[in-house]
Fold:
Amino acid sequence: MRPFAALVAIVISLTPYSARAQANAHAQAKEKGGFFLPTAESAKIVTVTTTGEAAAGITVITEAVAVKETGPKATVRKFGEVYAFSPQFIAVHRDEPTQIEFWNLQPDDEHDVALLDHDLKVLMYEKLPPLKKTSWVFTFHHEGVFSFNCLVHQPEMSGQILVLPPTAH
Structure:
């Protein structure tokens, strides 16, 4: 196994996501009045803006893995519709603004994105409307692993952001 692949496997195993975490994330979002960007307290961990200069960028798409229109009937019957983010793993550098653009490619399914810290605290929660591109500039101020999840389609629609030390100039 290549060293990077091993790192990805290790990182993926570090952030379990459970039904309890999903319920907790929904409760936090409801408590804050629905959709929100990071609060002043959360901005100490990550700053998220709708505009601004970015040093790097990436596009994350929503992917229909098995849906009622085209998926295997037995799969959809047993598991329901299954979606995923692609890519599911992103690496960024601390204090380096990075534009992350989410494309919801489904014409009839709304998704959302919740950014969670290592304690599964929701730092932001935003809507991903059908057939729309939604982007933010993220600047992480702490290193570590952060999860991003569609709370509607758990546990499969999940991803991780690994925040590395700043780049040396």
Notes: The longest helix spans residues 19-31. The CA atoms of residues 69 and 81 lie 10 Å apart. Strands lie at 46-49, 56-66, 82-86, 89-93, 98-104, 111-116, 122-128, 132-140, 144-149, 158-164. The first strand starts at residue 46 and ends at 49.
